Amino acid sequence: MLSKKTIEIVKATAPVLEEKGTEITKHFYKKMFAAHPELLNIFNHANQGQGRQQTALANALYAAAQHIEQLEAILPVVQQVGYKHRGLGVKKEHYPIVGENLLAAMKEVLGNAATDDVINAWAEAYDVIANVFIDVEAKMYDQAEEQQGGWRFFKPFVVANKVKESSIITSFYLKPKDGDTVPTFLPGQYITIRVKVEGETYVLNRQYTLSDAPGNDYFRISVKREAEPNKPEGKVSNYLHDHIDVGDEIEISAPAGDFTLDTAASTPVVLLSGGVGITPMMSMFNTIAKQNKERSVTFIHAARNEEVQAFKNTVKEIIENLENAEKVYCYDKPVHPENADIVGHITKDVLENYVKDHADYYICGPVPFMKAMITNLQKLGVKEENIHYEFFGPALNIEQTNTPIKAS
Fold it and tell me: What is the spatial order of strands in the sheet that 325-331 belongs to?
């Protein structure tokens, strides 16, 4: 339990973290990777290069400082980050390394303001916060391993099929190399894939949403090819598209994530996606079709045009098999305007047509897209607890960024 003095000091430094947090975390990652380059096998290099990881950590530190007396208030954040860590193979022994380098970075950036009292208070607080994460993640590892067909860290899977879904999205069907059963998962969850790309010193990790319903003898991920293969965010997606074929092996983590469909509910569902954010929606849509055909579903998707949109035929088939489902395609620049239900964007006026009593809204796509959807739904009177969203990458504060988040 933290002392009163420690709590007072940590809370007093919260405004400094709000101002200097990202600067501190940039110094932190630089120091840590210089001292422990092996950790580059765990962290997502694209998120590092774009500053997303640094911003996410700064936000987490600020939240912890604000709620140091009631850390249970940040448990949703701990849960979300814990899933990311479990998917990447973060271990208990990594936390002291993080703490040592984080405190050193605070000293560097804060200078004279980083008194012995401040650093000692944060060292004490870090131990408490780290143990919260360690405990949550230990349970997650146990759950992943103990379920039927489960495992703890990474396991080799074989590509059983490779299907082009659109001009930029390709699906990979993955089966366990050892022939074991495929564990179940919640619609909306993701897996981490780990690949060794020629010319890269370290293995590369990326997290991709599972794009089909649970209950099959495979996992399916659907990957968007990023336009610039030599940039960090494009290295893995282009490698998968160009070099991974049927019969090849990929190491993956067990499914993780807390952006999931409530399959027990019977309330109407509105699935809102932009671009490759369609992937979790396909898992949710397929699951509803399998488990609750009477449930009302509205599938709304925004894309540049019909050529880049994946799963058009699948969506059509699902709707035909459901009793109360509809789709709305919004294309910004359609090749053939007749293929678009709406030419342009999903505006507040568009959404107003699909606001339903007690409906749940699931949103995934680039952050600006999600911010617009969330803001407009709130203006239309949708309650916060009925709005669920997920974006690719670290847990940035959606209110503080206009940066598109894309899978790579």
Answer: 342-343, 325-331, 297-303, 269-274, 360-364, 387-390
Segment (H or E) for 369: helix 367-379
Is 179 marked as binding a ligand?
no
- Total number of domains in the chain: 3
Tokens of 273: 């996606």
Same domain, 228 and 303: no
Same domain, 10 and 142: yes
Q: Is 190 annotated as a binding residue?
A: yes
Q: Is residue 218 marked as binding?
A: no
Domain annotation covers residue 297 = yes
Q: What is the gyration radius of the CA atoms in the chain, in angstroms?
A: 22
Of 29, 62, 83, 95, the catalytic one is 95
Whether 371 and 242 map to the same domain: the answer is no
Does residue 95 have an active-site annotation?
yes
End-of-domain residue from the set 123, 146, 169: 146
The residue count for the chain: 408
Question: Which amino acid does the sequence have at 360?
Answer: D
Check whether residue 60 and residue 22 sit in a common domain: yes
The reply to whether 391 sits in an annotated binding site is yes
pLDDT digits (tens, 9 = 90+) for 305-332: 999 999 999 999 999 999 899 999 999 9
Q: Provide the β-strand partners of residue 252.
A: 155, 193
Active-site entry in 83, 137, 389, 390 = 137
Give the tokens for residue 283: 């898992």
Domain CATH number, residue 344: 3.40.50.80
Question: Is residue 233 annotated as a catalytic residue, yes or no?
Answer: no
pLDDT in tens, 173-189: 999 999 999 999 999 99
The DSSP letter of residue 308 is: T
Confidence band of 401 (pLDDT split at 50, 70, 90)? very low
CA distance 30 to 123: 20
Residue 406 included in any domain:
no
Q: Which residues contact 172 (CB under 8 A, 6 or more apart)?
A: 159, 161, 162, 220, 221, 222, 223, 240, 244, 250
One domain for residues 278 and 378: yes
- Confidence band, pLDDT 50/70/90 cuts, at residue 406: very low
State whether the Cα torsion 401-356-256-168 is positive or negative.
negative
